[in-house]
Design goal:
Layout (H helix, E strand, L loop, with lengths): L1 H22 E2 L1 E4 L2 E5 L3 E8 L7 E8 L5 E2 L15 E3 L7 E6 L4 E9 L4 E2 L7 E6 L2 H20 L1 H11 L7 H23 L1 H10 L9 H19 L13 H22 L5 H30 L7 H25 L3 H4 L2 H24 L10
Parallel strand pairs: 1-10, 3-11
Antiparallel strand pairs: 2-4, 4-8, 5-6, 5-7, 5-9, 9-11
Helix pairs in contact: 2-6, 2-9, 3-6, 3-9, 4-5, 4-6, 4-8, 7-8, 8-11, 9-11
Length: about 375
């Protein structure tokens, strides 16, 4: 009895496999991703997991990163040139070889459609990612400039920290700057997390800039987290080292309260869908821009009143200036290579940080080396 049951089960299992293999198919692309320069051509393979019993016609379609199909006849911004229909002969398991030409910079996803009633179970989920840039060398430069700005801005936090540690004093280091710096990088970290990790924010971004890359890269995320940690450690030095009667101003305290109220309002607007969460994160990132402008001003005024830059690290300024230059350079390179302003206006906080850093750093360098040069010899960092 048991042997009969097993025999029936094996028969049904084998029959089910045969039916499934005859009636359903899976498509594959080789390679699954292609990186090209404008004007280049590549060959990709498209095939099925087993042979078709009859002549079958297929068509490659293009989709943007927001999941919308691109109709080539109506598109003025096709990333790859028109792709002809292709077919697979009956009883032929060999893949089709498709030529694609890079027409314009951007990124698209290739999928297939069938003109027959062929059941392809993964037709909507299997795709080939095609990335096109204007110039490969420019692409390498934008990667290098990104890590250079990351390195310069990351190291820039340490001269002030080490100077305070060496002097066992925070006299000359403005407390408003220290506190606002922590708050600013907290908001910058939140903004970077949103664009780099949250799918909903990314979907809304690509809906606005379908052919652009994300303006927030891995080095942006790592930098903001590191900046938050080291700026917090520097601010904590205020509690342990000589302060010389300095304190956080009432204006700074009031500003912190206003920022808190602003944050609550923006979160409510995003929660009730008055604004998109992408817009909400943009609005929150403006806190970092505002703080970057405000936080430098007390330090510049303090240097002016004291007629001295002692206690304020020039090493921090040099590295901060370098980071600002490399950050803006990366954004310009991305915009050029992708022919899209999304690389610039898509991240206003990053652009604003670079401009503000360069502007204030020039002012601090003038104070240190030109206006109050004789009083700056005590700064070793």
């Amino acid at each position: 009895m048991l042997s009969r049951v097993l025999a029936i089960f094996c028969f049904l299992y084998s029959f089910g496999r045969n039916v499934r293999s005859d009636d359903s198919y899976e498509v594959y692309f080789e390679p699954k991703s292609v990186f090209m320069e404008v004007g280049e051509s590549e060959v990709i393979k498209v095939g099925l997991n087993h042979s078709v019993d009859y002549y079958t016609e297929f068509h490659l379609t293009q989709w943007d990163r927001n999941g919308r199909e691109i109709i080539l006849e109506d598109s003025n911004h096709a990333v790859v040139d028109f792709i002809s229909d292709f077919s697979i002969e009956g009883d032929n398991i060999k893949p089709a070889f498709i030529n694609i030409w890079a027409k314009s910079s951007g990124k698209v996803y290739l999928k297939i459609k069938t003109k027959d009633d062929l059941k392809i179970i993964n037709m909507n989920t299997t795709q080939c990612e095609v990335t096109v840039v204007r110039n490969r060398w420019v692409y390498m430069l934008q990667i290098i400039s990104g890590w250079l700005y990351f390195g310069a801005w990351t190291i820039s936090f340490y001269p002030q920290f080490l100077l305070n540690w060496k002097r066992k004093s925070v006299v000359g280091f403005n407390f408003d700057f220290a506190v606002l710096n922590v708050i600013g990088f907290l908001y910058y970290s939140i903004y970077n997390i949103g664009l780099f990790w949250i799918p909903l924010i990314q979907k809304q971004y690509f809906g606005k800039y379908p052919f652009s890359s994300l303006p927030v890269l891995l080095n942006d995320v790592v930098f903001s987290f590191h900046a938050l940690i080291i700026s917090s450690m520097t601010a904590l030095q205020i509690l342990f080292f000589e302060r010389g009667g300095q304190r956080v101003s009432n204006m700074c305290k009031g500003l912190i309260v206003l920022i808190g109220i602003y944050t609550i309002v923006i979160c409510i607007l995003g929660g009730v869908k008055v604004v998109l969460w992408l817009e909400a994160f943009y609005l929150l990132s403006h806190v970092k821009l505002f703080i970057s402008f405000v936080k430098y001003t007390p330090q510049a005024v303090m240097n002016f009143r004291r007629k001295s830059t002692v206690g304020w690290s020039i090493g921090n300024i040099i590295l901060d200036f370098s980071g600002g230059v490399f950050s803006i350079a990366q954004m310009l390179l991305i915009a050029y290579n992708e022919r899209s302003i999304g690389g610039i206006i898509g991240s206003p906080v990053k652009l604003g940080l670079g401009i503000l850093s360069i502007g204030f750093d020039i002012l601090f360098m003038i104070q240190h080396w030109c206006l109050y040069r004789s009083s700056s010899n005590d700064n070793k960092f």
